[in-house]
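EI: anyone free to look at a 259-residue chain?
SC: sure, send it
EI:
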Amino acid sequence: MKRLSPLADAPAAVHELADALTTMPGVAAVVLGGSRAAGAHAHDSDWDFGVYYRGPLDLTVVERRGTAYPPGSWGRIMNGGAWLSCGDQKVDVLLRDLDVVEHWSRRANDGAFEVDALLGYLAGIPTYSLAAELASCRVLYGDLPAAPFPANLAIAAPPWWRIRRTFSLEYARVLARRDKVVAAVGHAAKASLEEAHAIVCERRRWVCNEKELLEAAGLAGVNALFSDVPNDSTALVDWIDRVGDHIGARTDDRPSWKR
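SC: here you go
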């Protein structure tokens, strides 16, 4: 195993924590993720450390520094981890079961995936996000497999997401006609993210979460529509049609249950 790579600009307390994570029994690799791994961080950005492990994991090192959420606490994809402070620096520790990561990476290579509901995700988190993390992180300690974007996933994922986009838009129209403004707008937003997922998969571009998904797909302009939402039912249906037009969904495209 190689030693922890130097962390440029990391305060001593942050580097000390990263080094300590490598000593946890069961750890296979420690990585830097998020905006700092991408070089897109601000001076006050959080530090995101991913801990890849196999088998039982001893979290004593983390528990000494704050509350640790063990594997499974946050679901099968996000898994578990901790939100810690190192002086005035915020540090997220994210646990990843390497056996699970490798399983879903193999499935993605076959063009197969599932989507889980998860706090902080509107359209859900696809299981291939685990491969996206592999591709975007910076390995500080240990070794991890490469994760090029699978050709089979680029074929299979876009139509899957667009079926859901079409359903979400039509359900938004149904809700709008019944004056259910909040739910209608929520489904229109969900449809926008579902189309964005389809686009980035067509382009074979990994995106780890929804924070920059619209921008990555070239759909950031749809945000302007959400700043001026009508509350009249007829006008709201027309507004949803405009959202659909902006994201490239034809207004005559209807789910099978509406045909």
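EI: The chain has two domains: 12-142, 151-258.
SC: 👍
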